[in-house]
Write a structure and sequence with these properties.
Layout lengths: L2 E6 L2 E6 L3 H10 L3 H4 L7 H4 L3 H12 L4 H10 L4 E3 L3 H6 L1 H5 L3 E5 L5 E5 L23 H7 L4 H9 L4
Antiparallel strand pairs: 1-2, 2-3, 4-5
Length: 163
């Protein structure tokens, strides 16, 4: 403790401050020397019962900062932390683009769609998306037949716009 996600002014970050030395650096970085120097919080056993207090202190500090401001301070203090990416962030991140973590495909109706690439990316077995899946309803009749519906039942369901 603490290892959690926390909101900033413009999004969220994850912080892994659960080792004893990292906890101390984290508390000093967020201007909470009182918690850093509290002997009762020197080990995880003492921190766990005070989880809410510690999380509240971190959240209060982060609430007035942007993600970039918070990460600059935490990185300088050698506290493991990182941005939590939204889908929009992934689509514009230079690292995602450089590592080809997004792939474009043509959907059955001709529209281009972008999907996440296979992860992890391994050097010798890259992995790939070979099939985007069936068209909507492509297997409906087959599934209904395995459930005991016959062709007349299926025709009635279609006429009633149930399927």
């Amino acid at each position: 403790m603490p290892s959690n996600t926390y909101p900033c002014r413009d999004g969220s970050i994850v912080i892994g401050g659960n080792s004893d030395p990292i906890f101390k650096r984290l508390m000093n970085a967020i201007d909470r020397a009182d918690l850093a120097d509290d002997p009762a919080l020197a080990s995880n056993d003492g921190r766990v019962p005070r989880t809410q207090e510690i999380d509240d202190a971190i959240a209060a500090w982060l609430s007035t900062r942007s993600i970039d401001e918070a990460l600059a301070v935490l990185n300088a203090a050698d506290v493991p932390a990182g941005r939590i990416y939204s889908v929009a962030d992934m689509f514009t991140d230079p690292q995602y683009i450089a590592r080809q973590m997004l792939q474009c495909f043509l959907w059955q109706d001709g529209r281009e769609i972008t999907l996440p690439n296979v992860t992890p990316k391994l050097s010798e077995t890259l992995g790939e998306t070979r099939w985007l899946g069936p068209q909507l309803g492509e297997h409906t009749d087959e599934v209904l037949q395995t459930l005991g519906y016959d062709a007349d039942d299926i025709a009635r369901l279609r006429a009633a716009r149930v399927i």
